[in-house]
Amino acid sequence: MPQPTLQSLIAGRWIGSEAAAPLHSALTSAVIYHTHADKIDFDEAVTYARKTGIPALMQLNFQQRAARLKALALYLLERKEELYAISHQTGATRSDSWVDIEGGTGTLFAYASMGSRELPSSNVLHEGPAIALGKNGGFAGTHILVPRGGLAVHINAFNFPIWGLLEKFAPSFLAAMPCIGKPATATSYLTEAVVRMMHESGLLPEGALQLVIGSTGDLLDRLNGADVVTFTGSADTAAKLRVNRNLIANSVPFTAEADSLNCAILAPDVTPDDAEFDLFVKEVAREMTGKAGQKCTAIRRIIVPENMVDAVGMRLRERLAKVSVGDPSVEGVRMGALASRDQQRDVAERVELLARGNEVLFSARDGFKPVGDGVADGAFFAPTLLLCRDGMRNDAVHDVEAFGPVSTIISYNGIDEALALAARGKGSLVSTLVTKEPAIAAYAVPMAAASHGRVLVLDKEASVDSTGHGSPLPQLKHGGPGRAGGGEELGGIRAVRHFLQRAAVQGSPTMLAAVTGEYVRGAKVQEHDVHPFRKYFEDLAVGDSLLTHRRTVSEADIVNFGGVSGDYFYMHFDEVAAKDTQFGQRIAHGYFVLSAAAGLFVSPAPGPVLANYGLDNLRFVAPVAIGDTIRARLTCKRKVDRNRTDDKGVGQGVVAWDVQVTNQRDELVASYDILTLVMKRA
């Protein structure tokens, strides 16, 4: 019976009817799919992304695209079991697949949440504040981030066919960049399955996502300076792609996340009797066997004090001996197969290189026998532990990566030598330092950070919630210097900014306010008879403003506020001591000034303003003394429509208000933004 032929999604239609290269099950080596032989017209793909994808995405704003991401994550999560069934053929255990499948949908959820909190309901992201560029207040400058007007080509590795696509798709989608995803061929059948779901959901604007099964052909030759390329895979392949003549000629941004020789350091303060010692061994064993070691973040170098080598080796051998390898559907199996027989051969060749001049502490000779029906021809590889007693002279342990369940213990003398050994990896994605002593962490982390993209400091306290050495998180940067590619992925909204174009804008504050969609101090305001707090979200306009009546601060105000707050700081109550300060007199509490300003601008009756949920950028600029008279200007600074309703179905939006508190000399004494939930009329 012929096996299914995978298809590419190009220009809104599925292409691929003629079978080409066979794809094999990692568990049995049986043919399960074929790639397609149909030639892809990459000119059509690029043109479709530009002429259809970009306009469709630009019809939505940041907030609306964030809402689509959330809906898409929910859609995929409802169908996850279909993906788990397919993922099984990659050799992954259920927990391995969880990282790929639910880790991928979790990344969509994370970016949807961050986008709804941090991005505007427009397509212009203001990087303020504006900076005055003249003495008279009529000329200012600021920065904005806008969609690039290009497309993103995402080239991914075989080890995470779903997460690898979605962790790049999410931020580029938020940035209004249509994507062309190219998965590694060996496991492309799983990527094709999730893209089919995404396409069938109807949630993606037309042209937002295309899929390439097989070679990228001349795709990179058709890109221009508005486009971006991201790559995950081997450092060798990254180096070849990076020097594509067209990418260089058109200054096309190219970011790489490459395999690296990550390390874990056991600090010299930890002994076998400490909980941290067990944490170290457990973390190393988990990183060796999780996804059968096929993780760009896996621990390849285990750097331990010379006097701890035997203890660490013994504990690791004991743990590895308990790991059952085979078909993940068999109960008790904790480690599956490598992705392919080609990968199996590659890992074997690299282990042979690593073994030269080093000791093999644990390998296939220690009773390796995969379990399950038909696994004899599967791409299984035994957990392999080596020992290098002279890491400063052995180059192979710092240069050769076996992309499988393989790691090498390297001994050191003193923390400085440990850090030097870590740096020999020439740039890594992640390192872990296990220590009990904060002083060791304070000394070691700044030096380790120079050559690692992420540093995990693991102790007993952190272990309660730690996500582990090998878990990139959407909120934190994923990437590393040097051999690791020099790129950055994830990292919260920072990742979205990577796909946007930054520009400096100069002009009058009024013009800058119009461009950014935010009130810029010095811009023209609109004052009306209706108090801004009496307006529904739809009726408010950026620049709507209220200048309050005045209030003179008395000694009784200070005394009463101190009694209510319990704040009897000498600057407010000790006239003799206050005279010796830079202010020369008693002054009001800063938080009294804040509270008094609220009393001046708040409209007390029930109305559209539902809640105040925070302050940003609070500064007490100048002191307020007894007898000073203050007033406030409240201005609608920014509106964000989150497209949400409350439990009663009432729509809400978020409004940020600029507040400036001045004294009788019109001097600024306090400055801040207040954030409110405001009801919609509709």
Automatic annotation (TrEMBL):
Keywords: Oxidoreductase
SUPFAM superfamilies from the UniProt entry: ALDH-like (SSF53720), Thioesterase/thiol ester dehydrase-isomerase (SSF54637)
Location of the Aldehyde dehydrogenase domain: 27-446
The keyword Ribosomal protein belongs to this UniProt entry's keyword annotation: no
Domain of life: Bacteria
InterPro entries the UniProt entry points to: Ald_DH/histidinol_DH, Ald_DH_C, Ald_DH_N, Aldehyde_DH_dom, HotDog_dom_sf, MaoC-like_dom, PaaN-DH
GO molecular function, one term: oxidoreductase activity, acting on the aldehyde or oxo group of donors, NAD or NADP as acceptor
Protein name: Phenylacetic acid degradation bifunctional protein PaaZ
Species this chain originates from: Duganella alba
Taxonomic placement: Bacteria, Pseudomonadati, Pseudomonadota, Betaproteobacteria, Burkholderiales
Gene: paaZ
